[in-house]
Design goal:
13 strands, 389 residues, 3-stranded antiparallel β-sheet, alpha+beta
Length: 389
């Protein structure tokens, strides 16, 4: 590996490519900057877009999702929900979503077989799906409760988990997300506010009118890796496999097909696109307050170059990141909100007076933007809990 890439260069790339200085020209750029906005926590895509796009308002993302329908909230890498641009949906489906949907459907049939005749479970589900799509064919959005009222079979109880962790849930809680993973239905407007995780459902074909043609899985994986390396490169094979959820064989095939180049990053092999070896201009001093589960801190498995020794306080035990304070392309602390919506933070290293003032200003600005609304991350982390206690 003749090429070397320093930590300073990697941090400069993050600032510029992920628009951590709120430099995104448009909402779609804030989405594409990280390939997709993490959406498992319903508030995250709003706060992530706001951190990258000056003048952003909640209504901007709502319009793109629900009125213009240029964005799609869909399952992709690691069975995680992302907000992605509609024209890229076929890439995510081919590279990750389709195989995830297949596994989920197999599990669903298996679990349902414990409740009804195993020989009939698959056909029973297929008939119910047909009824759901027929009901949604009028183009209306319906809550899960609305669908279950019209189709009582959705209330059929099934057991999930085992032992003391087992419990009964309605089949709707498994079938509707599986249909969404298949791309047959889509999460439409939330049943509550923008912070709600309860969505209405719509038929995908009626919601979008026209969707991109399906891609072959290998082509999708190659395209997705190109998007990932363009935003996150250099990345190690461990980073790539973790972020995508691929096997080593699939990751290596995508790397070969993309003709990625290797660079040395602190003694490890990193991959970048062949045309992406030029150095970045050092950015201006930059502060960003990123929400829990933001795509940037969740973009790599090997994180020491941007998170230092702070990981134990900023991630939960399952690897979910909480709200983070970014300074010049690295994590320097965390933040949270008090019940009245005030944004509070704690720095985990000395930044000096000038940078600390920039963090103060960023926290004040976010407090004003939240306008009294307090968001509690779905996955609580040690520092966030301490700040909001």
């Amino acid at each position: 590996m003749a090429n070397r890439m320093s930590v300073a260069e990697r941090r400069a790339r993050v600032v510029r490519r992920h628009h951590l200085g709120r430099t995104a020209p448009a909402l779609s750029d804030s989405v594409n900057a990280t390939v997709g906005l993490h959406s498992s926590d319903p508030a995250s895509p709003y706060l992530s877009a706001r951190a990258r796009l000056g003048g952003f308002a909640v209504e901007d993302l709502e319009q793109a999702l629900f009125d213009d329908r240029s964005l799609w909230r869909m399952h992709a890498m690691r069975r995680t929900l992302f907000v992605v641009c509609l024209q890229d949906a076929a890439i995510f489906d081919a590279a990750a979503g389709r195989s995830i949907a297949g596994r989920e459907r197999t599990r669903l049939v298996r679990d349902l077989s414990a409740e009804i005749d195993p020989d009939q479970a698959a056909d029973w589900l297929e008939a119910l799906e047909t009824d759901i799509l027929a009901l949604l064919d009028d183009g209306a959005e319906r809550r899960t409760a609305d669908l279950a009222a019209a189709l009582p079979a959705l209330r059929t109880a099934m057991t999930v988990g085992s032992g003391k962790w087992s419990g009964q849930v309605p089949v709707s809680s498994r079938l509707l997300p599986t249909m969404a993973m298949d791309g047959r239905i889509v999460r439409a407007r939330p049943a509550g506010t923008w912070r709600s995780s309860q969505y209405r459902w719509a038929a995908t074909a009626r919601w979008f009118g026209e969707v991109p043609d399906p891609m072959e899985p290998q082509a999708g994986r190659t395209a997705l890796l190109g998007r990932y390396l363009g935003s996150y490169g250099p990345a190690t094979i461990r980073d790539i496999r973790w972020w995508t959820g691929w096997t080593a064989r699939r990751a290596e095939a995508a790397i070969a097909a993309s003709r990625a180049m290797t660079v040395d990053i602190d003694g490890s092999t990193g991959y970048v696109l062949a045309e992406d070896l030029d150095a970045s201009e050092p950015p201006e001093p930059t502060v960003a307050l990123l929400p829990g589960l933001d795509s940037t801190p969740m973009g790599w498995k090997e994180r020491s170059w941007y998170i230092g020794g702070h990981g134990a306080r900023l991630f939960d035990r399952n690897g979910n990141v909480g709200p983070t304070v970014w300074v010049n392309g690295r994590v320097a602390g965390g933040w949270g909100q008090r019940p009245d919506g005030e944004v509070v933070y704690r720095l985990l290293e000395d930044l000096g007076t000038e940078m600390t003032r920039l963090v103060d200003a960023a926290a004040d600005d976010l407090t004003r933007w939240m306008d009294g609304v307090a968001v509690t991350p779905r996955f609580r982390t040690p520092l966030e809990r301490t700040l909001t206690a």
